[in-house]
Specification:
The protein is of the alpha/beta class. It is 25% helix and 15% strand. Strand 9, helix 7 and strand 10 form a beta-alpha-beta unit.
Length: 557
């Protein structure tokens, strides 16, 4: 049931509100995966009160805003991305009063708050779906193929593996591009549009500063729901336009939401934003989501997926900047999130390379997103026991039957479902709860245990262990974010490439030059200026600089 505040009052505004150049254009936004951030009540699951208690840590880290993953009422079939009530807080995470308290506390600290909205699908426990007649108006139901309708309506596959259709006891089928517990909404129905606009106003009234739009590319499907013609469809996401993703019709929805956000903000002298989680095959198509009358930001997954090579990185950076510049939007950079392997592991398992990638990202023009724990240099946990995993793709893809891990090539799976037909199923490895203090689990995560087991060797990676150590990854992040805030040449603005030896990237921002050595060995070059910050010790002698392998350095010029 939708909750109400017992003593509602106007939520305080985040400091710096008002119509200006746009706070989001160079903001550093920190993703809090709520269930893994901080636990206040000892049940082993992070919650809103725990997150509120740790907000001073984020203020000291130097970020501008916090993005909270879903904490709404949910059966938790997909970590809260199966929402049963968009206006209620799930008891796992607290109450609506806890959400209100967190937003107020964040604003008191000068932090803005962005919350997830999940418009492509709901939970199968949502009141709309549990009503058989209402469901067939507001979700995508179709008759099956075959003599008795025993075959799915088309060949679409779930992102999590297996068919994207489930048959009901009435004999028809409903579409779910993710888990069967997440039926896709019918955005041809105006009642769906009206409901989500009302949901957004509800949270805006509570004081949030924006929305991260989950699957922002997914609400509209191609007319007739045409077959794709082959399997392994999840591997095509982000590489080509699919009949169920990145259809042009989604942009009308985002334009309507931009009008809502701007109108709300104008009436309250406040800037509220929309952020697209959109997988698009090219930077140019991604830029369509951030045209002046659409959303404010879009995650740049092309950068996240770029290999650690100068040509590839430069190509992605150039394409990203050119595409967003063409529509007057800032570029948004990200290296890790709750759906991908942590970049410490993904970039070859090297902490040095991960630190360098972070300094590169924070030196680029635009906004940056950080995923909780990356500031600690946390690696992906690759050895979680099968029995503790909760990623639905792990079970849908058939991986629960054997000991496999990220990157494992499995040739077959039960029930004829190809193990490679959906996501890899190992997202739990980046969702292990944070280590805050102590020498053994749960490392200060909460008074009890943790919903996923933490590695026994994380004692040296805790916040407490790294605080004050100038060589630690945490202090590198703090220093980088402090410099980024203080140096006017960083953040939004212009950049230019500079000459550099093979294997090295160099570019200038006003007053700053950034060098990135992507090679596994030292490189010597003329010292371009005075070192400001480096991901690894850099040596300057006799006007020559020696850049360590897999390092990034900021220079004052």
């Amino acid at each position: 049931m939708t909750q109400e505040l017992t003593s509602p009052s106007p939520a305080p505004q985040a400091p710096g509100s008002g119509r200006g150049p746009g706070w989001w254009r160079d903001a550093v936004i920190y993703q809090v995966y709520v269930r893994s951030f901080a636990d206040s009540d000892g049940d082993g699951i992070g919650d809103l009160r725990g997150a509120r208690e740790r907000l001073p840590y984020l203020k000291d880290l130097g970020v501008d805003a916090v993005w909270l993953t879903p904490f709404y009422a949910s059966p938790q079939a997909d970590g809260g991305y199966d929402v049963a009530d968009y206006r209620a807080v799930d008891p796992l995470f607290g109450t609506l009063q806890d959400a209100d308290g967190l937003i107020r506390a964040a604003h008191d600290l000068g932090l803005r708050v962005i919350v997830d909205i999940v418009p492509n699908h709901t939970s199968d426990r949502h009141p709309w779906f549990t009503d058989p007649e209402l469901a067939r108006q507001r979700y995508l139901f179709r008759p099956g193929k075959g003599e008795g309708g025993e075959l799915p309506p088309n060949d679409w596959e779930s992102v999590f593996g297996g068919p994207a259709w489930t048959r009901t006891d009435r004999g028809d089928w409903y579409l779910h591009l993710f888990a069967p517990e997440q039926p896709d909404l019918n955005w041809d129905n105006p009642e769906v549009h009206a409901e989500f606009e009302a949901i957004m106003r509800f949270w805006l009234d509570l004081g949030v500063d924006g929305f991260r739009v989950d699957v922002a590319h997914g609400m509209i499907k191609a007319p007739g729901l045409p077959d794709i013609g082959h399997g392994a469809q999840a591997q095509l996401i982000g590489s080509q336009v699919l009949p169920f993703f990145d259809q042009d019709g989604v942009h009308a929805i985002h334009r309507a939401w931009r009008r809502l956000l701007d109108g709300y903000g104008d009436a309250r002298d406040k800037q509220v934003i929309g952020v697209a989680e959109a997988w698009a095959p090219t930077a140019e198509r991604l830029a369509l989501y951030v045209r002046p009358d659409e959303l404010h930001q879009a995650f740049n997954f092309q950068f996240l997926n770029a290999p650690w090579q100068t040509d590839a990185l430069r190509s992605v950076i150039d394409a990203s900047l050119a595409a967003t510049a063409s529509v007057g939007a800032p570029t948004t950079w990200v290296l890790s999130n709750h759906d991908v392997v942590r970049h410490t592991t993904r970039l070859g398992g090297s902490l040095a390379r991960a630190r360098a990638a972070t300094l590169l990202m924070l030196a680029l023009p635009g906004s940056a997103y950080l995923y909780q724990g990356e500031e600690l240099g946390l690696p992906e946990v690759t050895d979680l026991p099968d029995e503790v995993r909760q990623d639905p793709a792990f079970f849908r893809g058939g991986r629960a039957t054997g000991a496999v891990g990220p990157g494992t090539d499995t040739e077959s799976a039960p029930d004829g479902v190809a193990a490679t037909s959906g996501q890899d199923g190992f997202r739990d490895g980046c969702r292990v709860p944070l280590p805050w203090s102590g020498e053994s689990p749960p490392y200060g995560f909460g008074p009890g245990g943790s919903w996923l087991p933490q590695p026994a060797d994380w004692g040296a990676l805790t916040v407490a262990a790294q605080t004050g150590d100038p060589a630690s990854t945490l202090e590198l992040y703090r220093a980088a974010l402090d410099l980024r805030r203080r140096l006017p040449g960083l953040g939004d603005g212009a950049m230019s490439w500079a000459p550099a030896p093979e294997g090295v990237l160099a570019f200038t921002r006003p007053g700053v030059l950034c060098t990135v050595n992507t090679l596994g060995h030292d490189v010597e070059l003329p010292a371009p200026g005075t070192p400001l910050l480096s991901s690894a010790p850099v040596t300057v002698q006799d006007a020559a600089a020696r850049l360590p392998g897999d390092s990034c350095t900021w220079w004052a010029i």
